[in-house]
Protein: Taurine--pyruvate aminotransferase
Organism: Thalassovita gelatinovora
Amino acid sequence: MTVQPNSIEARDAAYHMHSYTNARVLEAEGPLIIEEGDGIYVTDNSGKRYIEGMSGLWSVAVGFGEDRLAKVANDQMRKLPYYHTFAQRSHTPSAELAEKLIQMAPVAMSKVYFTNSGSEANDTMVKLLWYRSNALGKPEKKKIISRIKGYHGITVASGSLTGLPYNHMSFDLPIPQVMHAGCPHYSAFAQDGESEADFVARLARELDELIQAEGPDTIAGFIGEPVMGAGGVIVPPEGYWKAIQDVLKKYDILLIADEVICGFGRTGQMFGSQTMGIEPDIMVLSKQLSSSYIPFSALMMNDRTYQPIADETARIGTFGHGFTGSGHPVGAAVSLENLKIIEENDLVGNAARMSPLFLDRLNRLAAHDLAKEMRGIGLIGALELHPQGDATGKAGPALVNACMERGLILRPLGDSVAFCPPLIITEDQVNQMFDIVDEAIASLSF
């Protein structure tokens, strides 16, 4: 890419530091500038149109350019553009959204706490677990178990929960209270001759051994995505979540389901917890909650989580935590309308109906000579390539670039390529997306 002087690309590269980007490459090459969005498509500033095969960042459930969300945001901005939820203040959108989420929860939940991103929600979750342990008179019960390849955000606490090297390197993470259990990726981590059932049993046994080694009375919680996203779209083997939950129940350890990617239809049911048979104590929500039209997130907690926290606020006299934008009225109003669209247009059902075709086309790609395996469920999937020698680590980006040249935006995760289209996608559009990938992968050689 050649950056023209004084172009928007050059100005962006000169003044704007990007996430998940090599800063020196950005300075030299500039960014792709996206100007417009419509349905499953986005258009760059040269007029080139792309299928957004990643829903932005796993998140635009209702597609781009949804007028209902724009109207609700405008109406709320005019009526009450901002108010807070500190010191017993609230407003109608946050009250109604909290009620709606409690009604939607797949297991009994007690309270909702609003934040502005998945990272903030998980960071808040960590503080709540520590606060709760102190309230229970268990100041030693502060450790949290996450998993290798899990993704839970990028703040100091949530970045520590994340189990990916790039999120730790040079940041001095993870913090000491966080440890990582095994990843449920069978083909990558199974031992020779180990069946899926044996693999599941071993991961559960290793978790039990980790808890015993650390001391059960020091473990506050276990966090996991129902289906791992940024770690490579890793669908756990059958029986995995039951085995993990059995261990956690044995030691009375809270279970946190990170539904930031899976929630609101991505796996073909409203929540990934339903798809995977998880009964969480805390659920973390973001992305498709507002379709990322506006930054918004939440966590829900059950009564056994909430009651000690509430008692501690009474003892201290306040809950000394909060964000200026917690429960923002515009974000809450947009989220409410977004959930209405998901329900009224049966987008969860559409994900379930499109899933067989989506997974079939993904599976056909896995038969290619350059492919290693496919992974997927609902409308989320990944194709892993198997390059040789010095091509390792470059195959995923190469395929993504070849797709982008042909009008499809995907995301490389090492040598895997992730797919996560908007939930509004049609059969014709699924086929159009995979036809592009077919052509792109045929153009590659390693």
The first helix runs from residue 8 to 15. The chain is about 40% helix and 15% strand. The domain at 70-344 is CATH 3.40.640.10 (Aspartate Aminotransferase; domain 2). The first strand starts at residue 34 and ends at 38.
